[in-house]
């Protein structure tokens, strides 16, 4: 290989040009931006490189999304033939180095004089003018193509990369937001937000403060796209957030007040699963490990990565919750009272962490109540007052001057001296309003122009990561949780053994009895209570599995997780656990009591399959209870309500007639499980009564299983976005 290097001055920067050639690699010219050096004055550097081969196949690499001040954006990228875009090295023509971009994400080709864009089944999608590309789509001059955080403007022959964030570009802007709901007590209209207009720029830490009921959480929920305003709009990077939510939401992260973490996992395991569920399907385990290493360093938990979540302090739990939500490197982070409940030191450390996130290029909007740490760390303070009115926006010192107070902690007492309307009117006439509201309005231009006619519309769910990968991650996490909770695992096994021993002791040897009637009753009851016990164990295992992590599931659903895959992962792992318990009980009872069987291999197989079906059906019933319950307490109390009819209405303890028998046939699973288990075995039935066939009751158990699956999926339906949450 021969190498020659020399210095060359490019517009807006100084660069080093390197030419190289070997037997397999064509000669390429590479420009390396010297901004890759250490950060200066707290700004996150960026770098990009252009590689031009001798065959004019343009290769461009952009990374990351934040550009150094004073560095020109990349030149136009000609579209000739087929242009592949993605994050894979040596796999694409235009490399976009960001975790939300697939290895091969999209392609742009020319055919019949048209330029066509196609999405290559990417995780986060490809968008043209805010619309997701479903099939090959033509683009024209002025079309805007969005891939992850990268936006390109098509000028008719080339792609022109647009800066995603710079020191002067608006990050998020809301215009005259209004939100009115109905008071549940009086039925009168209740205003939550009243004509709120604010702007947040990149590298700004903005704190929302105000008295209770001033609309802080409503504003944060609206800015993050989780709630639609009744009036006004939210603009992110020149695009209407709600009209183009599907294209923008990957660049947002919301960290709610309530921590949703698995206590049995280690810090690293928790982050690994979170990153795996947020990064594209083609992300390798090595890349996930690297991402987790970076997150641990970023939030200051590297030295605690082997510690179980349950052993973390309050501040460390908040750091882990934050790390889970920023695994995909979003540009905008919304924090809903995440420092609540922390002591003074932990609160200060969290605010310093937020400031570090901001210094690396993100914009952070948070609700917090510790005004001392706001003064030390925040760039802007947004003050809301009663009725969701905007009372002030400014730097902490400017807000203090506006309210004529010496420290921010006195703001609530100062606000009580005048009405909400008075503070709103005073602020609109103050120079701060012009500086932080009017002067920050986006100017008309290709990046800021938003259609005034943009309307809210239903947006499709982002294509989740591959179902196979989702299932592997989710089932692996469920299995890990089961294994790591040693006490719960021991209790589960002990339940099965204890139940088997109690049944064996109660019914004893079934091959010897004093009279035929007693023997018949004991045999029927032994088989019946075996099946009821198996059903109960499966139901009990699963009854709280979904409801106890509902908050976490809703978060993961918002970024990638498919409800059906989540449900299937739960079912497979918990179903296997129930089967282990079922066959422990069955083995103990059959070994001691000698349950009657048809005597051949087919009869034994039928009984084993019947026990298997009952165990799975019990798990399905437990998952349905869990999905439909609002709390763990309700789920636990629902188990006996479901179990008692399985005992009383099974037509074993007491014969059923008329409507009651008809209802039992429709609703009671043990009615059919007993018939399936005892099919073909005359010892379970009085002389003259023929035992039932095996397939019909198994078919009814299948119908009941389908009904439980449907009920669970209904319980897993997402809440309406229209009304917010």
The oligomerization state is single chain
Please provide the count of β strands.
26
Low-confidence stretches: 1-58, 64-72, 165-170, 445-462, 721-725
Radius of gyration: 32 Å
Please bin the fraction of helical residues.
40-55%
User: Order of strands across the biggest sheet?
Assistant: 1-2-3-4-5-8-7-9-10-13
Indicate the structural class: alpha+beta
Question: What proportion of the residues form beta strands (DSSP E)?
Answer: 15-25%
**Largest sheet, strands/sense/barrel:** 10 strands, mixed
Overall average residue pLDDT: 83
Tell the overall outline: elongated
Labels describing this entry:
725 residues, alpha+beta, Tumour Suppressor Smad4, Rossmann fold, 3 domains, ten-stranded mixed beta sheet, 21 helices, 26 strands, disordered N terminus, disordered C terminus
Outline the structure in words.
Helix content is 41%, strand content 20%. It has 725 residues and is α+β, with helices and mostly antiparallel strands. It has 3 domains: 2-162, Tumour Suppressor Smad4, CATH 2.60.200; 172-260 and 330-438, Rossmann fold; 467-715, no CATH class. Helix 3 crosses helix 4 and helix 14 packs antiparallel against helix 16 (563-593). It is elongated, with a radius of gyration of 32 Å. The chain starts with a strand and ends in a 10-residue tail after the last helix. Mean pLDDT is 83; it is low at 1-58, 64-72, 165-170, 445-462 and 721-725.
């Amino acid at each position: 290989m021969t190498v020659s290097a020399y210095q060359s001055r490019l517009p807006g920067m100084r660069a080093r040009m390197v030419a190289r050639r070997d037997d397999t690699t064509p000669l390429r010219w590479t420009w390396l931006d010297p901004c890759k050096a250490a950060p200066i004055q707290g700004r996150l550097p960026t770098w990009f490189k252009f590689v031009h081969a001798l065959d004019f196949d343009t290769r461009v690499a952009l990374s990351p999304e934040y550009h150094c001040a004073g560095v020109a954006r990349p030149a136009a990228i000609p579209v000739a033939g087929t242009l592949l875009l993605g994050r894979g090295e040596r796999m694409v023509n235009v490399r976009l180095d960001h975790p939300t971009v697939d290895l091969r994400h999209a392609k742009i080709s020319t055919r019949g004089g048209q330029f066509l864009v196609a999405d290559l089944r990417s995780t986060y999608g490809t968008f043209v003018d805010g619309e997701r590309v479903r099939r090959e789509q033509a683009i024209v001059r002025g079309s805007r193509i969005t891939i992850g955080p990268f936006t390109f403007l098509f000028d008719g022959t080339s792609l022109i990369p647009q800066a995603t964030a710079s020191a002067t570009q608006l990050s998020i802007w809301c215009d005259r937001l209004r939100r009115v709901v109905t008071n549940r007590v009086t039925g009168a209209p209740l205003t939550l937000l009243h004509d709120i207009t604010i702007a947040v720029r990149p590298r700004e830490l903005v704190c929302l403060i105000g008295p209770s009921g001033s609309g802080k959480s409503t504003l944060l929920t609206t800015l993050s796209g989780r709630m639609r305003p009744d009036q006004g709009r939210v603009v992110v990077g020149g695009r209407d957030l709600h009209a183009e939510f599907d294209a923008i939401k990957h660049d947002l992260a919301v960290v709610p007040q309530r921590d949703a973490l698995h206590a049995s996992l280690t810090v690293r395991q928790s982050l690994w699963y979170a990153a795996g569920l947020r990064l594209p399907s083609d992300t390798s385990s090595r890349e996930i490990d690297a991402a987790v290493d970076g997150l641990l360093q970023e939030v200051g938990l590297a030295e605690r990565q082997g510690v179980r979540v349950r052993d973390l302090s309050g501040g460390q739990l908040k750091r882990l919750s934050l790390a889970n939500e920023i695994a995909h490197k979003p540009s905008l982070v919304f924090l809903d009272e995440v420092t609540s409940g922390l002591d003074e030191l932990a609160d200060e450390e969290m605010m310093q962490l937020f400031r570090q996130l901001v210094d690396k290029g993100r914009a952070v909007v948070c609700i917090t109540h510790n005004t001392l740490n706001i003064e030390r760390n925040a760039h802007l303070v947004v003050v809301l007052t009663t009725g969701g009115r905007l009372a002030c926006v400014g730097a902490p010192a400017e807000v203090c001057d506006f309210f004529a107070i010496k420290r921010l902690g006195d703001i609530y007492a100062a606000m009580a001296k005048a009405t909400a309307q008075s503070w709103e009117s005073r602020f609109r006439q103050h120079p701060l309003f012009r500086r932080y509201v009017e002067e920050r309005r986006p100017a008309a231009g290709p990046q800021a122009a938003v259609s005034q006619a943009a309307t809210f519309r239903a947006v499709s769910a982002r294509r989740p990561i591959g179902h196979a990968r989702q299932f592997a991650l989710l089932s692996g996490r469920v299995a890990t949780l089961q294994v790591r909770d040693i006490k719960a695992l021991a209790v589960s096994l002990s339940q099965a053994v204890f139940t088997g021993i109690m049944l064996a002791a109660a019914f004893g040897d079934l091959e010897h009895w004093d009279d035929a009637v007693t023997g018949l009753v004991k045999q029927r009851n032994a088989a019946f209570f075996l099946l009821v016990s198996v059903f109960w164990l499966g139901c009990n295992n699963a009854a709280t599995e979904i409801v106890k992590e509902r908050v976490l599931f809703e978060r993961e659903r918002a970024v990638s997780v498919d409800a059906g895959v989540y449900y299937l992962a739960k079912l497979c792992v918990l179903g296997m656990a129930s089967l282990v318990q079922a066959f422990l009980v069955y083995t103990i009872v059959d070994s001691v009591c000698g349950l009657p069987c048809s005597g051949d291999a087919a009869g034994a197989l039928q009984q084993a399959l019947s026990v298997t079906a009952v165990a799975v059906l019990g798990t399905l019933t437990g998952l349905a209870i869990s999905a439909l319950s609002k709390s763990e307490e309700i789920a636990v109390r629902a188990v006996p309500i479901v179990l008692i009819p399985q005992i009383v209405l099974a037509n074993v303890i007491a014969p059923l007639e008329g409507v009651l028998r008809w209802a039992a046939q429709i609703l009671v699973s043990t009615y059919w499980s007993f018939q399936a288990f005892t099919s073909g075995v005359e010892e379970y039935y009085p002389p003259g009564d023929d035992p039932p066939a095996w397939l019909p009751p198994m078919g009814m158990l299948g119908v009941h299983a389908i009904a439980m699956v449907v009920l669970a999926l209904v319980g897993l339906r997402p809440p309406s976005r229209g009304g917010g949450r």
